[in-house]
Each structure stands twice: as structure tokens, then as C-alpha cells.
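Sequence in, structure out. First:
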Amino acid sequence: MKLRTFLFGTVLLFVGCSPKTDNPILTIESGQVQGVVLDSDDVIVYRGIPYAAPPVGDLRWKRPQPVNAWDTLMIADTFRDAAMQQAFDPKDASYGTEYYYGNDNPNFSEDCLYLNVWTPASAAGHPTKKLPVALWIHGGGYAVGWGFEREFDGVAWAQRDVIMVTFHYRLGGLGFLNYPELSAEDPDGVSGNYGFLDQIAALKWVKKNIAAFGGDPDNITIFGQSAGGASVRNLCISPMSKGMVAKAIIQSGGGLSDLVSTNLKSQVELDELSKSLFEKEGYNSLAELRAECTDTIFKVTQMMGAGKFVPFRPHQDGVVLPQSFEEATYSRSIADIPYMIGYTAGDIGNMRKPILNFAAVRDSLSEQPTYCYVFDRELPNDGRPCLQGAFHSCDLWYVFHTLGRSWRPFTEADFRLSDEVVDAWTNFAKYGNPNGKGDDAWKPATREQPFFYSFNIKE
């Protein structure tokens, strides 16, 4: 069924109009779309394409539903609203100003299930190109973040012939709420993993549609950092994403350790806990919760999550996530693919041992390689109060080659290090080997040789 037409950016053009010959109109499952040729003229970006229906009204706290099709040409030139989350104070010298926000908060909305694609201009509209694809999952503790944070960009990847996709997913109480009536209405009798189901829906969208952008639907690398890295772990063990992932990169997401991967409370415990907390706020039914306005319900769930009364994150429900990452690794239920896994030297915890444990188990049970790394570069600063050292998330500027967007006094050596990082990540997406072809400086980690590659300035 075709519903309302989306307004993306400035105007809607009809298919009969004449677009630039170097910016083709693409046909995807829900309609036609045209992107924006960037100044470099070798990359086209498609901003704000819906990958699922807006999860609002009766679709609040439901599994993502199919996209509402459109019948006029969509000009995908504008990033869409981020998921509902707590705004940062621009004066707060924390991750918020270092990365996500800069000096401004974006718009937040429940209507947030959109993605962005960067592809080489030579590949768009050419399904036979079959370029490797990288799907990025942002971090933020399942509470903050979005797909167009200022440190994220796909240009450097597309220039290396890897298509980059980023996206938003539901966060906090709007993305991970358990409730008895929600479980009762679900066909599998579970609730709460809506944000994770969004991630699966984005992956499925890529699988179905990326050929139109020149991508290979059988060569999708998923990668993410922090909660995004934990999400990669979850996608590699969920039966709902089985067979869709060709390679995986886990950044600061732990190894054989829980970290921020899943909530360990049972489905029944989470349902009853949320029900009792809502009743204290005067809400006694799901109908009342779905009828409440976005801002109010967001504030109520924020209060519930404060102090970890309700840890809003993925949980083992027996359906979407039937077991833990550790159990899946030992039982060989994990995707049997190449892995790249690492952390920063000043991360939120020393992940070296859990990562090496993962590599050792994989070496025992699989022929596929596991490449381990540590990002050692201590970021430069100009003396102002700021995050210090090789802190959690510091590698993101390098992974996306966006050092020029930071206030930090990066040197030419930092830009060379960023080139090295992007080369390694894109080589892995292409070949399952961060070295690329003809080099073996970065060796897979095994039980006998627990090799860690170090990323740092090389004078």
C-alpha cells in the first residue's frame, strides 16, 4: 500500500525530470531515490532513506514494520531525525561535545528509522559492480547516538571502493522496554528488543537493496564501537540475522565478556519490573502508554532508567537472542566468518584478555581468522580540559578519516595513521584480511601466537 510521500530536503521531483547523468535515479524496493554528488565528484551520498515504517502511535514498541512506499522521486539530501535521547549541554566537556553534538543537538524524534549510504559515483546504479559493503552501528550505551554524528563519514571508505551505510535505531525506553502486555501481544511472547530488531531490519534492508547502489549483498561487513560493537556481537549470534553477515569488526565491544552486550535479567523479571514502575507513575495499561505523547513517555522511561532501575538494552529473550555471546562462541552457534576485534589503550576496561580468549576459542573451533588490535595513539590536545590519552571512542576520528572535524591539533602523522586504519578496515571488508593482498604484517591471533597489532604514530 502506498501512503504519504516523504519530503526529503528541498523539493520533490517527478521521475520525468532530467537528473544529472552522473547521479542516476535508483530503484529500490519501496520507490525511486536520488542522492547528492559530493564536491569531490567521485562519491554520492544518500541521506535519510527509510528502512522501516515510523515506529509511532500503534507501532510504538512493536517490531519494525515494512517501509511505506512512495510513488514520486525521493531526493535523499537530508539526514533525518535521530532517535529520542537526552540532549547534551554544549558546555559539557564530555563525549557529547567531543563527538556526537559539537555545539548543537540534532532533532530527536520517535520517527527515526532511517539510514544513509555513501557509494562511489561509478558504482551507483550498477548492480554488477558488486562492491563490498560496510554497515556501521553507532555506540552510546543504547541510550544516545545516531548515524550522522560529526565523526562519521563514508567518503574515505567509498573512495577505497567500499560502500558505507549508517543508520539510527530506537534507544532507551522507546527501544528496549519490556512490559507484560507487550509480551502478550507478540507472536513469540517476548518484548523489549525493539532497538536490536531495528538493527536486524537495517541489515535486511541492505541485503535487499544495496545492489542498486553497486554493492554486493553477499559481502556485508558489520562493524560498530562500544554498544555498537556489542551489537555486532549480538548480530553474529542471532538466528534472525543468520547468513547475512560476511565479516565482523568489533571495536571496544569486549570479547568473551558481557560488557554492555545484554541484560541478564529474565523476560518475566523485566516485564514485571517495568509494570510496577509504570504503575507508580499512574500508568496501568499498554493503551495508556501508547496514547501518551512522545516527550512525556520519554521522560518517564528516562526516570525509570536512572540509577539502572531498568537497564534499557538488549536481553536474552530466547527468540531474538536465545543465548549469550559466550555460549554461542563455545557452541559454534556464532557466525563462522572472519573477525577483527580490538580496543583502545585507555578504554573503559582492559579488554586484552577477553579478546585473546575469543581469538583462542575461535582458533580451536574454526578455520576462519581472528585479527586483534589495540589503538595506542594518545590524542593530542591544546591544553584545554578534555578527554585524555587513548580514551574510549578516540579511534573514531581515525576510522572515518574525519580528524579535520575535530578541534584537536592533529599532526600529519595522525592523518597518516588514519589512512593506515581506514586501509586496514576497508581491506578487511574486501578480503577478510586487514593487510590486503600480498602482505602479512598483521597476523591472525591463535592459541599459540596471541598476536595484537598496535595502531600508533610511527615516527
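Second:
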Amino acid sequence: MMQRLLQFTLDLFDTRPELPAAPTPPRRSSGKKTARPVPPRIEKAEPFIAEFVGPSLPAQTLQQALAPATFRHPRATRETLLEGIAIGYEFRRGKRRTIGFSVGAEGLTVSAPKWVPLYEIDKAVLEKSAWILTKLQETRARHERLESARIEWKDGATLPFLGEQVIVVLDPRHAFGGVGAELKSNDADTLPGVTHLTLHVGLPHSATPEQIRDAVQAWLMRQAKRIFTERLNHFAPTLNVQWRKLSLSSAGTRWGSASADGSIRLNWRLIHFRQSVIDYVVVHELSHLRVMDHSPRFWDTVRAVVPDYAELRGQLKDDAIPRW
């Protein structure tokens, strides 16, 4: 009797909602089909739990969520939506046979023949969407790397020279033989086997950022002229060609060029890269003195001297060098 009275009291004050019992799985039979069990009604608390333990977002949806919201060319005349991302692109008409796509620092440019209707342009852009988005994201990432590598011109600034980090030191006591700067190696102040490179510049500590930049650039260009000349002389006999004139360039998009008369132009900023990368560009331009195009024969010529040219070529695109 006391047991029943106690149970009745517990049941009376228990406020927990009674959840429906799980349905009993139907028995298999070889005869009539059994109806599928009706799932139990979900209480209000269930969706809250399911929100955290449910499946994750699809990969593409997550990629779209993390991707930049828009890419817009400063001279954009048309706009489209690719995988949820707004793309404003420069559109050009010209004398050409096919629709062309190019992605540069400013964004996407689409070029098309005059006779191609706009709906065909839209269709071609959509079909090329994967390539366009990949290139735009790569270009934006590279721009961000370049911006992060921008040099703050002051005493203690760092910059790459032949693939090594060099620290700028203002040293007003010396003129360094009239050349304005001198590279020094300090092994004593570093760990064993670690070289500490400093570029001592003959300027006062009150020098402006522009003065420091110009002095360092002048020194780098002298080193570039010396090293490029040395590497041209090294590889020319191997390729059985003769170069006649070297000029330094400051082109924003080209690392080098070659003319049929033996003139070579090399971007002085190559001096920031490792020597193996410089050697690839030197061999590339010297190879043009044998083959004046980018045919398979040209690349075979380059490969014969620099077998890993593809990897070195990739470093020219991927490595961030300082903005000046």
C-alpha cells in the first residue's frame, strides 16, 4: 500500500513530458507489404539539438561563403554572377575569330569578335566560370602578398637579395668607395652556420624614405647588371648564341625580352630572386636568339639547359617580391 501511494505521489509531481515510445520495427514477411512506420512527433527541443549535430555544409557552399563577394574591373562595362560571386568585367570588341579571356591585376577582360551576339558572350563566360574564378582568386591573393611585402624605407628595413633577407643599416660614417652602399656578412652575431646579411648605406639617420629607397635601388641595379652579365656569359656558349647588349628594365609585367640583333633586356627586380630563378630567365631569353617564339622547339631548347624550368617559372608567379 505504501509503495503504491509513493509511486502515485512521484507521478503527480513529475513535470517531464512523456516522449512517445519508439515504434516497433515491422516484421518481414513474404506476403503482403507492411506499411512503413510513422516517425514520432519531434518535440520543440529536438530541432535545436539537430542544428549542431546535423550534416555540415556542402564544400561548394562553404567555398562560396568564404570567397570574396565581388571582383570588379575598374573599366567594367558588363557584369555577371558566377557561383554566387558578382564579376564586373571589361568587355571589348575587336578583329578576332574567337572569344578571349584574360585575368590581370585589374580583373577580368573579355574580348570578342564584332559579330558575336551578347547572349553567346554570356554563355561563354558561364562555361569558363571555373577558370575565371580560380584566376581571379589567385590574382587577388598574389596582390595581397605583394602588398604585405611592401618595404617601409627606414633604418632596419628588410628586403630580399638573391633569395636572402638583407637588413638595411644607415651608416653615415662611410661613403663606401663612392658606391653609396656595401653588403656585409655578420656570422659572429648569429647562430653557427647562419649568415646575417646587412646592407650598409652611406646616409644620415635623418634621411627621408625616398632617399633610402633610391640609394638601395641604385645599389641593387648595379648588382643586377654585374650578375646578369656574368650569367649571360656563362650560358651563351652552352646555347651556341652570342648576345651583344644588356639593358635593365623596370617593366611591371615582363621579366625579360630578346631581339634578333642580340639585345637582351632583363628586369632588374629579378635580383630579389634566387640565382636559379635568374638563370632560368637568362636561359629563356638566350634561347630566343635561337628560336624567336614559344613553340615546342623553343621549350626543348630551354629544357636542355634548365630541366626544372617549369618549377622555376612558377616561382616567378608565386613568390612575392617587394613593391617599390
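Remark: Confidence is low (pLDDT under 50) at residues 8-24, 28-35, 37-68.
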